Amino acid sequence: MIEIRNLTKMYGHKRAVNDISFDVKDGEVLGFLGPNGAGKSTTMNMITGYLSLTSGTIKIDGIDIMENPKEAKKLIGYLPELPPLYLDMTVKEYLNFVYDLKGCKLPRREHLAEICELVKIQDHYGRLIKNLSKGYRQRVGVAQALVGNPKVLILDEPTVGLDPRQIIEIRNLIQTLGKSHTLILSSHILPEVQAVCEKIIVISKGNIVANDTPDNLSHNLSGSNKFLARIGGDFKSALPVLRAIPHVKFADLLGQKEADAADFVIESELGSDVRRPLFEALAGHGYYLLGLKPMELSLEDIFMQLVSDSNELRSDNAHEEEKAV
Ligand SMILES: Nc1ncnc2c1ncn2[C@@H]1O[C@H](COP(=O)(O)OP(=O)(O)OP(=O)(O)O)[C@@H](O)[C@H]1O
Fold this sequence. Notes:
11 helices; Alpha-Beta Plaits; single chain
């Protein structure tokens, strides 16, 4: 649905987005993640046609945003970081205004009523936007993005500045919208992306440093399979048993959590599944496997690792460039 090739944006001499390429499939919910200043908003603004490209191409459903901006923009609903609301309008006036602005051809009353029901603002339809809470204003921002029934929704930091309850409500709304749209969610809040996205792209200093599912990111970067096992019985001599299991590369005692049980960390080689041999070995030696859970890296850990790796890479390149000069 979205095809991005070799996209670059320069602000004068500053390279804000550096030769990035990625696809978003029809119906996919993509998290676009990165620290402040990474180039997220710049990328979103280029995809939505608000900002010109320095080089590269962006196609929405096969339509080139630069060659045919009007047709491409019809396919996109955009909620920028600062929603373009007119505070002195009522919700009704504002959504009708957006409807006219977009040249929407759908039956006006039914279409707007449907949107208000979906984002749950029907009870505030006649109220001035300036009198609404931040959470409700954000819903109005989402509503304007939905006018015209676009196939693609792009939401830039939709929960920034909201209180915890409002954040949960907007996240639930994003989840609902993700079922019927191709959606890009830009954020620097990891749990948010993890909660709603099937795929994650991490951008740092204008470069893509990861493009994968949340599970794969966590799995691949940890470089091994780590488990936390609670073992019952005479656990004091369990370590040699664990270490003798084929493909276990590390095992150690973490601590005693129950009267006759202890927790062990077990790390196996990547690509091997030691859960069954583990069970058999323990049972064979008279131990009880009381619990087994994966200890994958959190997205938080991964994010820090990716962003710092990309910084190291950049400073290496900078040294190389200095040497070349
Ligand atoms: N109009 C502009 N002129 C010059 N530099 C800009 C302009 N807009 C953004 N930048 C710079 O480009 C880089 C990318 O900015 P961008 O706003 O896309 O990042 P971001 O990932 O969206 O960050 P944030 O989460 O803080 O909004 C930053 O270094 C920023 O300072």
